[in-house]
Structures are given as C-alpha cells and as structure tokens.
Amino acid sequence: MNTPLIYDLDLPYLTAQLKMWGEPAYRAKQIWQGLYQNLYASPEQFTSLPKSLREQMAKYLTFSPFEVRTYLDSSDGSTRKTLFELPDGNLIEAVLMRYGDPADNPQITASAANSIGRGAKNRRTLCISTQAGCAMGCVFCATGQMGFQRNLTSGEIVAQVMYYAQILKEKDEAVTNIVFMGMGEPFHNYDNTLAAVDRLNDADGYNFGARRFTISTVGLVPQIRRFADEQRQVNLAISLHAADDKERLAIMPVNKRYKIDEVIEACKYYVEKTHRRVTFEWALINGVNDTPEVARSLAARLRGLLCHVNAIPLNPTAGYTGQATDRERARLFKETLEDAGIPCTIRMRRGIDIQAGCGQLAGSVMDSNE
Q1: Is 93 designated active site?
Q2: CATH number of 6-60
Q3: Are 285 and 324 within 8 A, CB to CB?
Q4: φ and ψ at residue 96, rounded to 5 degrees
Q5: In the prediction, which pLDDT does 323 show?
C-alpha cells in the first residue's frame, strides 16, 4: 500500500487527515512542530501523542521517501554528498557544505540557527535536488548528461533538508543556507519547489528565513517573471556561463528558446519588482568563457543591473572535455569585471574529490549498473 509522505502534507491537509481519524485539530499542530521544530524522524518519537495516534501515523503515513544508497565525505571533512534512492529506483543527490569550524562560533546551534544571516562565518549550506535528472541538457553538467527522469514532489524536496537537519542537530549544529542548485532545474518544477520553500519557511514549523534560500535557474523567462510577481524574499541565481548567444547555445540548449537578452530583461523586471540583487552563476571553463574579452562583453550586458557574478572553476565531468580555469585566469576575469563596475566573487570548488558537482555521483552509480 502506498502511503502519503508526511512532508508532502501542508498543515491544513494534515489537520483534515487527523479529523478523519477522529482526532482534535490541535494534534496537527503538535505533529507539525514535532516534524519541523523537534526534527522527529519516526512516529515513535512523538511521545506527547497518544499511542493509538502514533500507530495510525506509522500505518498510514510515510516518514522517509528514500533510502541512503551511499555517501561520500571530502578529504578535508568540509563536504558530504549523499546519494538517495527513491522507491521507483530513481537516484537523487544532496550535499552538505561546511564553512568554518563550529568550535570557533558556538552560536551555530539548532536553537540559534534562525538568527544567523547569510554572511555568517560558520555556515552549513545544503545543496538540494528538485528533480531526478534534468531536461535542460547543459553539456558541462553531469545531471544534464543523464537526461530527465521526473519531478520531485514538494515533500521529497523537503525531506532532503530534514535528513541533513537531523544529522546536524546531533552535533548541536543547524542548517544556515539552502540552495536549490542540485539535480534538476527548480523552475521546471516550479510549484513543488516553491511549495517546499513555503513549508520550510512556515513560522510555526521549521521557520527557515526566506533570505537564506537561493533558487538557481538556467533562465526560464516566464518563471523568472512569475517569481518576480510573487515578490518573495528568496534569492535568485541565474546560470549564465556565456555572454554571447552562439557561445551559450553551444553549452546550454535552453538558449535556443530564451536568448540572453530575454533573460537579462526578465532579471531587470525581477529587480524592479523586488528591489533584490540577482546573482549570475558562471562556471569558468579554460579558454572558453574565462578571458578578459568575455568578461568585458559580460560587463556590457550587465551594466546598470543590480547584480553580482559568482564565478567558480568548472567541476569536471566524464561527459564534457572542458577543463577548469586556473587561478591566474580566474583572477584576471574577476578583475576585468570589477574594473567595469560589476561585482564578482571567485568561489571555492567544494568536494572535487567526492564528485560533489550535481549529478556526478548519481551518474557514476548509474553507469556502473549498466
């Protein structure tokens, strides 16, 4: 018997379900707080509930939508990638990235998590998947190379966060940032992705601050405009990676449908509506998009837009021959942008030794099964 995943239920639905079981409405709030505040992972942990209700929950609700297939820790201990297997056999990944030593800042605890801002020194950032596979086909991305399998439900997205939140709680730590940059295109699964954000943001539940979420998209223009109209406080990142339509189309098929100018116009609309900055993600590929000429072309396109460029040397994948930019070329790219008035940060690559780029671990496991 297929039973509903409890993380797929919003509070009104959960309340209605309990009413059908003959339970008072306040029990739903108790369950909600147990799930998202106490981080309970099984019905047995809800000791404040009657035994009969715990038995009903165990019989009619699912508390985990996946099994841990494997996990890898980076050699420096800063990154863990977990590969989950869904009941239908599909594989998804989630990554925990640690920045700073928690011993340096005892404020990073479960009880203090919601007071910690995006710029905190000691961050615990999760990179979460929204789809099994991806339909966008970006040639340098391991997930794009494997193709699209299906959308994740909102509960399957939430469950990835809860899995790591429970692990961190055991260390008296907590999640500080969530980025939807794992497997899949979040705006291709718009409704479920934003439903997951709303569930995690709920003030009576996990109460995760909206400004500590980042959603990354390859540039689905209608969804960017819809997102702007909703005027959320969630951060928006655009995977751009090229300043010329021909060059972008060569690595990102989505550019056939949405040209760079259209994406930039949608971003301007987003800034006008929300007054929030847009981040442009840029995978630095040696000799392809890392030259001063490319940087100047990019700066010309972005001039006047409230934005920031987040550049990171390419994560290598088996299906793409491009190589990562070296440190000197990355520095020159950054300086050229900044000289033109465009803020730029060169990000550290995380977990290279554990295939931490999205889709890499799943792809290697899928290949080994063939």
Answers
A1: yes
A2: 1.10.150.530
A3: yes
A4: -105, 125
A5: 92
Is the Cα dihedral 315, 282, 190, 245 positive or negative? negative
- The answer to pTM > 0.85 is yes
How far apart CA 28 and CA 34 sit, in angstroms, is 10
Q: What would the CATH number be for the domain defined by 67-369?
A: 3.20.20.70
Residue located via tokens 């000691």: 122
Q: Is 184 left (phi over 0), alpha (psi -120 to 50) or beta?
A: left
Spatial CB neighbours of 252, under 8 Å, sequence gap ≥ 6: 136, 137, 138, 139, 218, 239, 241, 242
Q: Which of 274, 180, 258 is nearest to 221 (CA)?
A: 258
CB 284 within 8 A of CB 329: yes
Instruction: Specify the pairing of strand 235-239 against strand 278-284.
Output: parallel
Residue 279 CA: distances (Å) to CA of 43, 159, 345: 41, 26, 10
From residue 249, alpha-carbon distances to 30, 136, 154, 185, 333 in Å are 51, 12, 31, 17, 21
Count of residues making up the chain = 370
Residue with tokens 């442009």: 280
Please report, for the chain, the start and end positions of each structural domain, with discontinuous segments joined by +.
6-60, 67-369
Residue 55 catalytic?
no
Model pLDDT for residues 87-137, shown as the tens digit of each residue: 999 999 999 999 875 444 443 344 433 433 344 468 999 999 999 999 999
Q: List the catalytic residue out of 93, 156, 185, 281.
A: 93
